Amino acid sequence: MTRLTVSAHFVTAALAGAARDGFDTDAMLLDAGIDPTLIHDEQARVTDIQYTQLMQVIWDRMQDEFMGFAPGRSRPGTFATLCQLVIHCDNLDCVLRRASHFYALFETGVTLPLRVEGDEAIIELTHEGPLRDSHHFLQESLLVIWHRLSSWLIGQGIPLSRVFFRYPEPPHVQEYRGLFHCPLAFKQPATGLAFPARFLDRPVIRDELEMREFLKTSPADLLARPDDRNSYTARIRALIGRDFTQPLPDFEWIADQLNTSPQTLRRRLKAENTSFQEIKDNLRRDIAIFHLMRDNLSINEIAHRAGFTETSTFHRAFKKWTGLTPGAYREGLR
C-alpha cells in the first residue's frame, strides 16, 4: 500500500517547542527514522509512519502532550484517559461537552468548548495566557485531532462547513488543503471549526476494545492520515486508484461516476481547496516517495510507476514537489 506523506513544515513545527526548551531534536528525528538533514528544506516530506513515531517521541521526551506550546503541561496519558471516558457517551454532543469539561479540570490553560448556533455546531479553542506556538502547530493539531476523533467515534466523516483562525494567513497555508476541506478564514476573533449541528445527535458506535486498539497510535496518527472520506477529493482518489502505469481516467469520466457535471465537480473541488490536477500530482508524489524509501527499484522504474514516460520529466516534477531530486531524496533516507 502506498503511504501518505507529511510536509516537513509540520515536522519543524512539531519540534519547535522542544527546540526552544533545549531538547536534542536531531536525536528525536533519528529515533523516528527521519534524517535531520532532510527537513531543512520545507518542501521535503516524510511518511505518515515516520510522523506518527516522531509525535510519540516528542511526547515521551518532553512528558507533555501539548509539546511545550501551552501555558501548562498536559501529561502523557491525558488524551488516552479522556478517550476512555467519552467512549461511554451516547452521542457526539456528549463526547464534545465531556471533553471540554475534562480539559478544564487541568491547568494546561487550553480547552475546546462546544456551542450551537442555529443549525451549526461550533468548537472554539480557548486558552488562559499566551500560547508559545509561533507556528500555530498546537492550535491546528487540536482542531484536526478533535474533528477526526469525532468522525471515528460516530463511524462517518463529518463535513466541516468552515474553519477560522485568530492569526493571519500563514506561509504554509497551502498545506491546509490536506487538513481542512472547507472554506478558511483568517484574522478572526477566535480559532475554531464549525460543522452541521445534526451530527451532534449521531450515536457513538465504537466500543472499549476498538478504543484500546485506536489508542496504540493515536492521537499521533490522526495528524498524519486524512479523514475526508465523504469529500470529493477522497472519492476521486479512490476512482483514480494507485496504478499510474495505466492511462488515468479523464475528468469527464470521473464526474460521470460521481453523478455530477464537470462544471459542478470543479466548483466542489474548489470549495475543498484543491483541483483535479493537484489530486493527481499528490498521488504521484506519494507513490514516488513510497518507492524511493525502498532500494530495490531504480529511479527510472519509479518514474514509470508514478506515471512518467520520461525520467527527466519525473526529476523536474519531483524537485518541484519536494525541493530535491529523486536521487538526493533517496540519499537523505540512508
UniProtKB/TrEMBL annotation:
<protein>
    <submittedName>
        <fullName>AraC family transcriptional regulator</fullName>
    </submittedName>
</protein>
<dbReference type="InterPro" id="IPR018060">
    <property type="entry name" value="HTH_AraC"/>
</dbReference>
<dbReference type="InterPro" id="IPR032687">
    <property type="entry name" value="AraC-type_N"/>
</dbReference>
<dbReference type="GO" id="GO:0003700">
    <property type="term" value="F:DNA-binding transcription factor activity"/>
</dbReference>
<feature type="domain" description="HTH araC/xylS-type">
    <location>
        <begin position="234"/>
        <end position="332"/>
    </location>
</feature>
<dbReference type="InterPro" id="IPR009057">
    <property type="entry name" value="Homeodomain-like_sf"/>
</dbReference>
<dbReference type="GO" id="GO:0000976">
    <property type="term" value="F:transcription cis-regulatory region binding"/>
</dbReference>
<dbReference type="Pfam" id="PF12833">
    <property type="entry name" value="HTH_18"/>
</dbReference>
<dbReference type="GO" id="GO:0005829">
    <property type="term" value="C:cytosol"/>
</dbReference>
<dbReference type="InterPro" id="IPR020449">
    <property type="entry name" value="Tscrpt_reg_AraC-type_HTH"/>
</dbReference>
<dbReference type="Pfam" id="PF12625">
    <property type="entry name" value="Arabinose_bd"/>
</dbReference>
<keyword id="KW-0804">Transcription</keyword>
<keyword id="KW-0805">Transcription regulation</keyword>
<keyword id="KW-0238">DNA-binding</keyword>
